[in-house]
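A quick aside before the break. I want you to see a complete sequence-to-structure record at least once, exactly as it would be stored in a machine-readable document. Don't worry about memorizing anything.
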Amino acid sequence: MIRNYDLDTYIIIVSGFPKYKNVAYRLHVFDYLDKPLDKTMLFKTLDDMTILLQNSQIDIYEYFQTNHGLVKLKVNDIMYFEYSERKINLYTNNDSIYQFYDTIYKLEERFKQYHFISPHKAFLVNIDYIQNIHLNDLILEKDIIIPISKLKKKQIKDAYLNAISKEMDQ
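That is the input. The structure line, written in tokens, reads:
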């Protein structure tokens, strides 16, 4: 049933019925472990899966109730959010714009795990799209300029430099 809805989830099957291995592998499971469960094999499988997850670019999606209805977007495709006239404008890398009701503060909490930063009370920016920091502005791809508040200037520079150094280490 999982595969009917999600093709990207890693599945490990633990079973006492080895005759179902062929069926399981046709469903593209990550591993099939026989019972009785060998802890060493379980931990090796989990370690292998962790390494694969860390080294792969898995698409992560978020859902938004927008002016276009319910929209599913890849987090990596979101360039930034802007608060304007009591609405959020969401800008993507393919020039799509969506509007919905929310606050930057709530979005900041929701997206901090994905390395979004808030350089100003009206903006939340995907750090991957920052090209440069110039004086009191962030320069994003496509020459988009986002202001940096004076109170957040050091925090934003530190976050950007940290992201660059992590990128260079990879």
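Two observations worth writing down. The longest helix spans residues 39-55. Helices lie at 2-5, 21-26, 39-55, 104-111, 153-169. We'll return to this after the break.
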